[in-house]
C-alpha cells in the first residue's frame, strides 16, 4: 500500500468516525426491510432445524434453558457490535475494529479468519443443500446440485447488492413462516387437542420424563457448542454496514430485535415442540420439526421441513459469497491482502473477491463428487471455532473502544451497549467456557485441532507480508474527538 493509499484510507475513516456516512465506494442498496430479514435469517439456520434433534437427545427439555442463556450472550455480542457500528459503520466491521483497537496484526488475522469461516461454511451449506435435493430425487448426483447452487448464487451476487438483499429476504421469510406455522399448529394441538398428538400433548412433558434436566446439568453444558453453532452468522448484519441505507436507524433496529427473535424462533418453538412430542422420542440426526409434524399426523411435514432447511442452507451460502468479497476488499485496501481484490465493479460490487471465494467454494463440488456420504463431516469442524473468533474480537474491541470513549479520546457511540463492560466480560467468559466444552467433547475436539494450524499459517504469512510491506502493518491514526 502506498503512502497516498494510506492517507486516503485514513481520511475515509476519519469521515466515518466523525459521523459522516462513507460507503467506501459501495452502493447503499440494502433497505430496512432487507436488513431486518438478514438479521433474522442470520439467527435461524440449519442448526435449529437439524442440529436441535441431537441436542434434545442429549439435554432433554433443559435445552430450552441453554438456548435462553446463549441467546442472552448473543444479544450482548450484538449490542457490543452495534456500539462499534454506530461509532464507525464500515463494511470491514469487526476486522476493521480489530485493526484500530488491537493493532494491524489482529485486523489481519480477523479478516482472513472470517473470510475462511464463510468459505468453509459455504462449502458445508452447499453440501447440505445438495443432500436435501436427494429427498425428492435420488437420481440427481449430489455434486450436480452443489455445482448448480454455487453458480446460481454466484451470479446473483454479481448483479447487485439489492438482489442479494432480496434473496436473503425471501430465504428468511420461508424460515420464519415455517417456524411460526409450527408454533401455531402446536398451540392448536395443546389447546384444542386435534390430531392423535392431542391425546399426549401437554406442557408437563417439559418435566414429566426425568425432570427438566433428565441427564444432569453437565450434559446440558455439553450441548452449548451445538447451541452456539446454531447462532453463527448472526453477526453478518455488521458486514452490511457499508451498504445499508441510513445505517444509523436500520442497524440499531435490527440488533434490538435479537431478543424477541430468539424468544420466538428458538425458545418458543422448542417449548411447543417438546410439549407436543415427549423429549425421549427425539433422535440424533432427525429434525425436531419433522418429528413434530409426524406426531401431529401431517404427512407433508417432512417435505416442508426439507424445503425449509434447503432454503436455510442456500441462504447461508448466499451470505458467504456476499461477506467474503467484502472481507477480501477490506484486507486489500489495508495492504493486508492482494491489491487485485481492492477494485469494485461499475455496480459497486467487489467482483474479484466474490469470484475468488466462489471458486474456492467449488471445492465443495469436488468433495461431493468424491465423498458424497462424508462430505459434510469433512469440512464442518473449523466453522464453529472460526466463527466464535469474530465474536471474541467484537467484544474485546468494544471494551477497548468504550474505555477510550469514556476517557474522551474518541466520540461516544449513539448506541451504547447496556451493562457494558460487565455484559461484554460475561459474554467473553461464556464463549471461553464453550471452547473448553468443545475440548472435553471428543466429537467436537477436532475443531480445536484446526485452530493452531491456522494460527501458524497466519503468523508466518504475517511475518512475510510485514517484511515485504511494513507500511501496511503500521498503526494508523483513526478518528479522534475534534
Descriptive labels:
482 residues, mainly alpha, 20 helices, globular, disordered N terminus
Percent of residues in β-strands: under 5%
Helix content: 55-70%
What are the secondary-structure elements, in order, as H or E? HHHHHHHHHHHHHHHHHHHH
Radius of gyration: 22 Å
Summarize the structure.
The chain is mainly alpha-helical and about 475 residues long. It has helices at about 5-15, 30-45, 45-60, 65-85, 95-100, 105-135, 140-160, 160-190, 215-220, 225-230, 245-255, 260-275, 290-295, 300-335, 350-360, 365-370, 375-380, 380-405, 420-440, 445-470.
What does this molecule look like?
This protein has 482 residues and is mainly α. It is 69% helix and 0% strand. It contains 20 helices and no strands. The longest helix has 33 residues, at 301-333. Keywords: Amino-acid transport, Cell membrane, Membrane, Transmembrane, Transmembrane helix, Transport. Residues 1-25 are annotated as: Disordered. This is Amino acid permease.
SSE layout and pairing:
Blueprint: H1 3-17, H2 32-43, H3 46-59, H4 63-87, H5 93-101, H6 104-133, H7 142-159, H8 161-191, H9 216-222, H10 224-231, H11 247-256, H12 258-276, H13 288-296, H14 301-333, H15 351-361, H16 363-370, H17 375-379, H18 381-406, H19 422-440, H20 445-468
Helix pairs in contact: 2-8, 2-11, 3-10, 4-10, 4-11, 4-12, 4-18, 4-19, 5-6, 5-18, 6-7, 6-14, 6-15, 6-16, 6-18, 6-20, 7-8, 7-14, 7-15, 7-16, 8-12, 8-14, 13-14, 14-15, 18-19, 18-20, 19-20
